[in-house]
From TrEMBL:
This is Carboxylic ester hydrolase. Its EC number is 3.1.1.-. Keywords: Hydrolase, Signal. One of its GO terms (molecular function) is hydrolase activity. Residues 1-20 form the signal peptide. PROSITE patterns: CARBOXYLESTERASE_B_1, CARBOXYLESTERASE_B_2.
């Protein structure tokens, strides 16, 4: 015991000199040494204690690869939590768009980070907790991008971020008990449980926890809420542009990808045992670099490695009835999407097709021809599983500006709206509407983010917010995103800084009370109304003015939730839920 205390003293002396104030937390995970940083944002400055890179699981290597995570044994000596842990293995090219340089990766990546405002250290009361799940289509992302000191300081909440396994290492499935899949979801769940068990030692309230995330992180937040054994671990979720209903968020036939990966790495692929035995002996670099195994049509709107039906975490494909009977209805929900959410998916997925048009001017009818002869048919095949002329004509009719049908810019915007509706907006509605209808005594709040930032590098025809554009605003425009989002060197307008401040306060208010308007005044200029099926009010977020609107995109919503399923059921009897879900009126 004396030696143990001596180690703590040495750590405090050394790191107190090198990195500022230190603080030791004694938790059930062991003794953890945090270090302070100064945060200045939204007209406020304060101290934040950071506990970075804390392992919450044993390394998922060897026989633990393609298995559920094993909780980390308590530390036998003080753990110096001074730096972010390495990212989980992923395709580096995509990650470096977010985190330029050469981000370090390791299969020993299951680490957690805790950001604690000074008030939570000096007060006897416990502070609300917000757990962030990063997005990235389940194939890219890492917690080190999301420095959360501005949120913790301004909002006076404890913020937690963590890594989870990605790509084939996180979501390979052989569709049997040998590798049922969803290992990344189990990583998330273990991190959430770690917070429940340990966060009180850091000053956080384990009974006032909010899960929030963007894209795949948003879909994951809902999926964690659907998992009944998580009940009691959190009471609210914030969903930013994602849902388990997104076409890219669930795979019905995952084994084919496991077999293709095995074949690419010269492994036997006749049985699950043979596949796993061989893949567990390969380097993670070999697995990640060979993980793009889908055909062009298969990969147009989705990655190969995503959540699956595993018989435990997900007992079935997410359906309307599944959501209506789930634990999701027992928690508060703040949910929304961005005006041009579909741009990221469309541009990334269609890159091979667009490459063929590089030598052509994207004017003089080229966008119209591409839209009708390439883009719409791909959507039809993805929706119906085959070509269908009636559905093709219906989509063309719905997404054509008939006042100026040959306008190239309007055609490109229609293309992006179709992508947004199919990939994000309608899947979000399929969670929002049941929650508003059936979640008695629980709060439902809705937003649309429509800010095209002054530092945006998107093409000019993208006049609103691209997918993920809200994330730096939610995090208080932190240094960790500056290079990837191109706002380094003071490129943020004053109005954008103010919008970010308001959003941080609204998000953290919701985490505290279930109401984004209080307890802290947001200076938004309006009161964010609760969503209900009569008025359908939501808040519209831009730097010009925050306002309250009603009935978000009603024509497009009615098309996808009512008309399209009826037509699809005519094409494929019994498959009317494939994209839009069961018809919803109101």
């Amino acid at each position: 015991m004396a030696a143990f205390l001596f180690q703590i003293v040495i750590y405090i002396i050394f790191f107190g000199i090198a990195n500022g104030d230190s603080r030791v937390v004694n938790s059930t995970a062991g003794s953890i040494i945090g270090h302070t940083t100064s945060a200045s944002f939204g007209g406020k400055t304060g101290k934040v204690y950071q506990y970075l890179g804390i392992p919450f699981a044993e390394p998922p290597t060897g026989q633990r690869r393609f298995s559920k995570p094993v909780p980390k044994a308590p530390f036998s000596s003080p753990f110096n939590a001074s730096t972010f842990g390495k990212g989980c293995p992923q395709f580096s090219f995509y990650l470096q768009q977010w985190l330029p340089g050469n981000p370090a990766q390791s299969e020993d990546c299951l680490t957690i980070n805790v950001f604690v405002p000074e008030a939570a250290v000096t007060s006897s009361k416990k502070y609300p907790v917000m757990i962030w799940i990063y997005g990235g289509a389940y194939v890219i992302g890492q917690a080190g991008i999301y420095a959360a000191e501005n949120v913790a300081m301004l909002g006076e909440v404890v913020v937690v971020t963590f890594n989870y396994r990605l790509s084939a290492l996180g979501f390979l499935s052989t569709e049997d008990d040998n590798a049922p899949g969803n290992f990344g979801l189990w990583d998330q769940r273990l991190a959430i449980k770690w917070v429940h068990d340990n966060i009180a030692a850091f000053g956080g309230d384990p009974h006032t926890v909010t899960i929030f995330g963007n894209s795949a992180g948003a879909a994951s937040a809902i999926t964690q809420a659907l998992y009944r054994e998580n009940q009691g671990y959190f009471k609210r979720i914030i969903v930013e542009s994602g849902s388990p209903f997104c076409p890219w968020a669930f795979e019905e036939h995952p084994k084919k990808y496991a077999e293709r990966l095995a074949k690419a790495l010269n492994c036997p692929y006749g049985s699950s045992v043979a596949i796993l035995d061989c893949l567990r002996k390969k380097s993670f670099e070999d697995i990640i670099n060979n993980a793009i195994v889908g055909s062009q049509d298969e990969k147009v709107f989705r990655a190969e490695w995503v959540p699956v039906k595993d018989g435990h975490f997900l007992s079935e494909k997410p359906t309307d009835s599944y959501v209506n009977a789930s634990g999701l209805l027992n928690i508060d929900l703040l949910i929304g999407s961005n005006s041009f959410d579909g741009a990221f998916v469309a541009i990334l997925a269609l890159q091979p097709y667009l490459q063929q048009l590089m030598n052509q001017s994207f004017t003089n009818g080229v966008p119209r021809k591409f839209f009708e002869e390439t883009f719409i048919p791909m959507f039809v095949r993805d929706i119906a599983g085959k070509d269908d002329d009636a559905l093709k004509k219906l989509l063309i009719h719905q997404y054509t500006d008939w006042s100026d049908p040959d306008n190239s810019q309007k055609t490109l915007q229609s293309l992006l709206r179709l992508s947004a509706d199919y990939n994000f907006y309608m899947p979000v509605l399929r969670v929002l509407l049941p929650h508003a209808k059936y979640a008695n005594h629980k709060n439902t709040y809705v937003y649309e983010f429509d800010q095209r930032s002054s530092f945006s590098q998107d093409p000019t025809y993208l006049t609103g917010a691209n997918h993920g554009d809200e994330v730096p605003y939610v995090f208080g425009l932190p240094y960790s995103m500056a290079a990837g989002m191109h706002y380094e060197g003071g490129k943020v307008a004053v109005a954008e800084m103010d919008l970010s401040k308001k959003m941080v306060l609204m998000w953290t208010n919701f985490a505290k009370s279930g109401n984004p308007n209080s307890p802290t005044a947001t200076t938004a200029g309006v009161t964010w109304p609760m969503f209900n099926l009569n008025t359908e009010q939501y808040i519209y977020l831009t730097s010009n003015a925050i306002s309250v609107k009603s009935h978000l995109l009603p024509g497009r919503r009615d098309f996808w939730l009512n008309l399209e399923p009826l037509l699809l059921d005519k094409i494929l009897p019994g498959h009317g839920q494939t994209s839009g879900g069961t018809p919803i009126v109101g």
